[in-house]
Design goal:
The chain is of the alpha+beta class. The chain folds into 2 domains: 1-60, 2,3-Dihydroxybiphenyl 1,2-Dioxygenase, domain 1 (Roll); 70-128, 2,3-Dihydroxybiphenyl 1,2-Dioxygenase, domain 1 (Roll), CATH 3.10.180. 20% of the residues lie in helices and 40% in strands. The protein is built from 3 helices and 9 strands; from the N terminus they run βαβββαβαββββ. The strands form 2 sheets. Strands 5, 6, 7, 8 and 9 form a 5-stranded mixed sheet that branches. A hairpin with an 8-residue loop joins strand 3 (38-44) and strand 4. The chain is globular, with a radius of gyration of 15 Å.
Length: 128
Amino acid sequence: MQISPLTLVVRDYNEAVAWFTRSLGFELIEDTDLGDGKRWVVVGARGDKGARLRLARAATPEQQSHIGNQTGGSVFLFLYTDDFDHDYRILKSRGVDFVEEPRTERYGNVVVFRDLYGNRWDFVERRP
């Protein structure tokens, strides 16, 4: 068994796909028209066969109220790298909104960023 994809509530399919593919360098894995303005949109880190994000356009006022705050302000997702300094510079050059300076923890290097809607992510290079 595996868990995938995780749903991320978004304002607009196209702006979300553009941000995840341009800013984070993710690939668009699937974009299927489901009719009535709905789509099944899935993105993921290039080459990663694990977790994926399903980008789901908010369809109700309640769903809209959770855009950018899927976890009540806690870090929502974790993006791992094996070359922190290199990838951090690339993400910064693409305009990713880092909310702090990188720091070293017992488990590795980490920095928090926000996606285009404000959800908080940890960008991490784990120590072996």
